[in-house]
Design a protein that fits this description.
Blueprint: E1 13-15, H1 24-37, E2 42-46, H2 53-64, E3 68-73, E4 83-88
Parallel strand pairs: 1-2
Antiparallel strand pairs: 2-4, 3-4
Helix pairs in contact: 1-2
Length: about 100
């Protein structure tokens, strides 16, 4: 079993199909933080349609994260109910203003 860190592009699209469900709870906050650091505030998380269990897990995680401004199921062109669109809060600049 290989537990080496997985290098993944920080491009605003997180496809959970390539990860174990047990890894999702740590992966999502880490990925969203990396997106913020890269200046990406719109993220698409692909969880698949399936039974909806993974979607519910993703949404429960997003509800708890202070960096999330809003999330919703994607439209048909972006994956429909098999993906969630996430809008991240813009980080604060040192003077207290929002970045961007």
């Amino acid at each position: 079993m290989n537990d080496a860190p997985v290098e993944m592009p920080i491009d605003g699209v997180l496809d959970l199909h390539t990860f174990q469900p047990r890894d999702v709870k740590a992966l999502i906050p880490d990925y969203l933080q990396a997106c913020l650091e890269a200046g990406i505030s719109d993220v698409r998380i692909i969880h698949g349609k399936g039974t909806g269990a993974l979607r519910e897990t993703v949404h429960a995680i997003l509800r708890r994260l202070s960096c999330v401004a809003h999330f919703q199921l994607a439209g048909e062109g972006a994956g429909g109910w098999g993906a969630t669109l996430v809008e991240l809060k813009k980080p604060l600049k040192p003077d207290g203003a929002t970045a961007g």
